[in-house]
Amino acid sequence: MISILVFLPASLVSPTEGFVTVPAGSYQVGKQGDLDNPLRKVKLKSFEIAKTDVTNADFEAFVKATGHKTVAERLHNGMVFEPPLKEFQWKQDPTAYWRYPNGITRGGIESEQDHPVTGICYDDALAYCKWAHVRLPSFEEWEVACRAGTKTDYFFGNSPDQIGAYAHVWHGRDHMTASNSDGYAYTAPVGHFKPNPLGLYDMYGNVFQFCSGRLPMDHADWQAHARGGSWWCSRNSCCSFNSFYIGTVVRFASFSNLGFRVVRG
Amino acid sequence: MITKFSLLFVPFLCGLSLKATAQQKAAPDESPDLAFAIYRTSDTVPPYDLDKVKALIDSEKRREKKPGSKRLGDTFVILPDHVFAALPFEEKFTYVMIHPETYSQNCSAAVFMIGSQERITGWLPGSRYSMLWSQRQTDFLHKNRSMVIALLKQEIERGRHVGLNIKHAVSELNADSLIPSLVAAFQRDKKDVDILALLIMLMKQGNCASFRRTPIYDKLYGKRIVRGLSMPAEGTTMGIPANDDNEKLIESQAMAFYASGVK
Q: What is the pLDDT of residue A108?
């Protein structure tokens, strides 16, 4: 099985259920007053973006084909979440990596092959992309695909009141007690919630999606960025499940709410 | 404004002690908004045995770079438990202040907005370097609370910019005994609106009843109901205008809270 995967063309071990084409054009991105992502027009070439995040099954194929060892496996620096924790607090767990995104004691992904891969860092995502002959979306590509022609904070308007229909996010008041009110405590299967108008799933939830790009506050090269919101995000904490927010994380850090989707072109 | 900020920058040795050299000074073409964002996220470097602590971190980095090391080499290192445990108090304090050991997640409560220098929020920004104190580091702060607060007081009263790490330590310890020092620091450096944010946080954490009744509290922390959903009144980033009235109200409320002897 492994040898078969090694010799499969990358297009046949595609990470997703399909891609959507975003045509070349001039697009509005950003938000008025946002220092990281100011309101502006950008010109983009046409590209194809995956409908879903890269799944555990996709990542397993990559690991089997390449023998890739993730940074969390080498550094034992995986970041995990288990209530009760104060807002924005996570724990480091040396046993955590993509097969056990919240540590061995909190279970593995055996029955979650269709969930987005997490417990990987930016450099692991780049390694996957190199193998699969794809790449991460730029900030602008991700946003144009997410907005799907809209100019509001969300592709469904300016109020987040419909977020639960489109995204797996945290509905609890805080993070002191577990929240699985939408059926999932950590990740959910990709494509489980409603897509955006372009047919892209989980743009505002499930896991943050690594993007390529630099922000004005960046320094050196050890920070990475991800967009889109995650199962951890709630309206009472970060509220980052929207079309404009760009997050920052150390590029070697692996969190159980960080994943990625890919683009071609 | 850029020149004024650059005079106040202090090196962030966490960044220096890691892979990269932090770019603290605003480049000539940077906007006042970016310069302010860099200014407000700069840290204080305590002087206590600084060279020794830096040497320890460098030594650990060299050790991690040895061939066969399972780590990534020149990335993030932490002092081994026995080395950390053996550090005298003041060296531990310096280490904790300059070298947070774990990562912050991708999102934070505060984002950098244009015009932030003219707004007072109810939150402190996160570290520019996406790093946080580890459990053993926060344990150190809490277990040595009174001694740590004494050093924080020295740093606040030293007369220079109160670094973001000092502000976070004050908040972590809920050190409302430092309110007079913070008010004095704001009088020296009135563009540091995050000192006001810290005063607000201390009053909130201390359940200051009179402050809870002010319009400021309601604007920063109150909730509004949108179609049945509870939402922060002003969001986490907008804040309130940094005008004389608001500044005076926050200062007077904080000083009254301190005088009430709650702590």
A: 95
Asked if the model's pLDDT at residue B1 lies above 80, the reply is no
Model confidence pLDDT, tens digit, residues A193-241: 999 999 999 999 999 999 999 998 887 778 899 999 999 988 777 778 8
What DSSP string runs through B109-154? Answer: S---BTTGGGEE-SSPPPPTT-EE--HHHHHHHHHTHHHHHHHHHH
Q: Would you state the structure tokens that stand for residue B19, as one six-digit string?
A: 């892979």
Contacts of A247 in chain B (CB under 8 A): 105-108
Closest CA to A208 of A181, A177, A242, A179: A242
Q: CA A54 → CA A173, A262, B64, B85, distances in Å?
A: 29, 7, 32, 42
Is the preceding omega at residue B125 within 30 degrees of 0, hence cis? no
Spatial distance between the Cα atoms of B77 and B55, rounded to a whole number of angstroms: 13
Query: Which chain A residues are closer than 8 Å to B225 by Cβ?
Result: none
Work out the minimum CA distance from B89 to partner chain A, whole angstroms.
25
Widest pairwise Cα distance in chain A? 52
Q: Count of CB atoms within 10 A of residue B3's CB?
A: 9
> 3-class secondary structure for A155-215?
CCECCHHHHHHHCCCCCCCCCCCCCCCCCCCCCCCCCCCCCCCCCCCCCCCCCEEEEECCC
**pLDDT single digits (tens) B226-244:** 444 455 555 556 789 999 9
Which chain A residue's Cα is nearest to B131? A250
Instruction: Please name every residue paired with B65 in a beta bridge, in sequence order, or none if there are none.
Output: none
Asked if A117 and A59 touch (Cβ cutoff 8 Å), the reply is yes
Q: How confident is the model at residue A1 (pLDDT cuts 50, 70, 90)?
A: very low
Question: Could you give the ipTM of this predicted complex?
Answer: 0.86
Residue A21: how many CB atoms within 10 A of its CB?
13
Task: State if pTM tops 0.95.
Answer: no
Write out chain B residues lying below 8 Å of A253, CB-based.
Answer: 103, 130
| Cβ atoms of residues A154 and A180 within 8 Å | no
In angstroms, what is the C-alpha Rg of chain B? 19
Q: State whether A74 and B72 contact (CB < 8 Å).
A: yes
